[in-house]
């Protein structure tokens, strides 16, 4: 494990994996990309980033792989795949990992690390990554980046011996992103960070599918605004019931920052439009279960979740 | 006012007005139909009913009017128009009414009589009618009747002096329907009857629009079933908070009877598909307000209402 020049593997090269992988590669890191359906396109034409923040960027050739067995052992593995495929990815991650590697789940939702942990070798460190970014994939190998970009990391589990070592590892990961020009912070409490991220993801992801609308339309209508705020309040109240603290006036801040964003269609909207399974387990089911476990109900979120399950079942055939 | 052979006026000849008006006319009552956009079609071709219960029925010629001023004074006025046009209809109703006429709102929702009452002459009796029927209009003057058909009536307000007189008038109205082969009962508490009807209307009307689905699809999916039951429970709990009693195991009975119904698209679905305003005031806003007035919240229903308001605003242009 070379901390000066670690080797980075990207597991799942969609919008998130493509964006961060390309930025890290362009910053001089040795980055290896695992792909499935987009392998041919990326091997032939490379990765392209159209970024409102960083301009147009390209990476060619790309160190691209169809099979994790052919990847060199990676010190850091960034998982940008959908949470819906995590269980199937566990052996792939293990295969691409150098001894003592750090695996970072750049995913939304709750308890995604808990679900993956028992499927990974104990020698691997597992971290969560919260991406504050507006990004989507417009075609194979092409990533559109509209705004933001920060990644906050938190340690989940693994062989780190004490809090200081966990913090050091997390900061080491954060430093990789910062070296690539990306804002990043190490957070001490991953669970708190995941709940904080849910306050945005729970309303906007689901409502974009249910109402077929991006953030601009959802923010422009008084009723959907109220609904968004009511849903956010349920998430904040659930987090509080779980003993987690949200930032002061957090809902007001999220509303303001969303008002200032360009029109954005969250990832669940794209998943729905492309008939992929929706990430309902990580973004709805796990938070509902965690809250229910301490006796806290989130009735509007449960209603939204049930409506989305109906839509997802129909959309999947 | 002749109680032996009352003259009946139908205000708003859509699916509900068309069905009951045609059935009453075919039973020998003197029925006069007020129409707007469908006047030409009905004057030229009459009314047609395709009923799974009563077979194919036709009424031709039809005593049809464009203008209430040309209608003879009616002893009973059955209002089958959308609740969204009630305020505009008040002068029309007054114009078509014989002295001491009985006005029956054959409409869904809550507080529709409260809203209309101050706009009507004090000399008119106002009743509410709850229609338990699966019916829709397939084209101008053509009504499709899938199942059921009962109408329960309750006295709201007017010159009736005491409970006995109110009850007698209500039973007189009920008898008209029964004479036309339609099940009908006089109910003592209109508010209770309206809340009881809401237990079905609140989930199915809104979800048919939100999820683009009829009763069969909504009942076949475990998640939408749970959502329907949760919404029904909120209505039942709100009614209870208002001091009203729902029948024993009412939700279970409604689920069973809906399971046995042919696939049905509620009226709100048709309103949405035809870009008419949705009846959100009567079916959602009024119950939410009535419950809130006694400190009872219905969070899933409020979320559904806000989502529907967003959809309705977009649908109206």
The pair of chains with the biggest contact is: A-B, 26 and 26 residues
* CATH fold node name of the largest domain in chain A: Rossmann fold
Shape of chain A: globular
The value of Rg of chain A in angstroms is 19 Å
Count of the separate structural domains of chain A: 2
Alpha-beta content class of chain A: alpha/beta
**Judging by the overall fold, what is the CATH architecture of the largest domain in chain A?**
3-Layer(aba) Sandwich
Q: Low-confidence segments of chain A, ≥5 residues, pLDDT <50?
A: none
Q: What kind of oligomer do you see?
A: homodimer
CATH C-level of the largest domain in chain A:
Alpha Beta
- Based on DSSP secondary structure assignment, what is the total number of beta strands of chain A? 10
What do we call the CATH homologous superfamily of the largest domain in chain A?
NAD(P)-binding Rossmann-like Domain
